[in-house]
Amino acid sequence: MGIFKWIGGFLGWMVAGPLGMFAGYFIGSLFDSDDEKSSIGSGEGYTGSSYATGNGSQHSNSNYDSGQRNSFLFSMLVLASYIIKADGKVMHSEMEYVRSFLRQNFGADAEVQGDQILKRLFQEQDRMTAQDPDSFRRQIQDVCRQMKQHMDISMRLQMLHFLTLIAKADGNVHPSELNALYELARYLGLTRSDVDSMLHMNSNNQGGYRQGGGSSSSTANEMTLDDAYKILGVNPTATDDEVKTAYRKMALKHHPDRVATLGDDVRKASERKFKEIGQAKDKIYAARGL
């Protein structure tokens, strides 16, 4: 399945606003042949009226689920471009993480075209920043607001999880990347605690985050007690009842069923995250004798 299908088939609510602007630009720039332009113009892969528009319009479940996934993945690329360039450099390891994600789930064509989209996003960021240093940042803020309006909190948390994995891909979370993660979380209606929680997870065996930058070489099986508290978003001084309440809230927000419409790969990533939340709870409970 090429990337065209999940850009061309974006969700109805993404037609308007900054995401629609980005999508329209890249659809037009990636496909140059007359046949491809014709198919895009005629709506191949995208039947706007069959997708949710945010105003209660009717849609088929299959189209809606596909549209949710397509919109999620395209939005991830847009926000990934902001995280990857946050430290002023485009690291090979971070780019390779995104390429690998696309290759494994969409095939070689998607990897190549997704790579092109990221590079064009970097170019657009450079162009806009040269004219006004804050212009691309404002555009990203508007993108996040659009996502906040149309994606529930579990989807936004999963988006943030992918962004933290990208930031950690080179083995070091630069302070500017950390600030960018906090910034995007705020725009998405999430919290600094959400970012810290995900940074201390070891999903995909990328190592846990340590305050001050860098990653540990530990695996999920070697989660520290400090990691466990950070993952649940509570202080070591929290009462037993506060720890239990924090875990219940985390389990509800991060349950894999809540992102099932985004596809098996996204659900599996959510399952790994959910498992680590359970491991953090078990670690704290064992230390407290609960």
How does this structure look, described?
This protein has 290 residues and is mostly helical. 66% of the residues lie in helices and 0% in strands. The protein has 13 helices and no strands. The chain is globular. Residues 32-60 and 204-221 have low confidence and may be disordered.
Q: What is this entry, summarized?
A:
This protein is 66% helix and 0% strand.
Main traits of this protein?
290 residues, mainly alpha, 66% helix, 0% strand
Q: What's the total count of β strands? A: 0
Main pleated-sheet profile: none
Order of helices and strands: HHHHHHHHHHHHH
**Share in helix:** 55-70%
SSE diagram, text form:
Blueprint: H1 3-8, H2 17-30, H3 34-41, H4 61-84, H5 92-106, H6 108-131, H7 135-150, H8 153-168, H9 175-187, H10 192-199, H11 225-232, H12 240-253, H13 264-288
Helix pairs in contact: 4-6, 4-7, 4-8, 4-9, 5-6, 5-8, 8-9, 8-10, 10-11, 11-13, 12-13
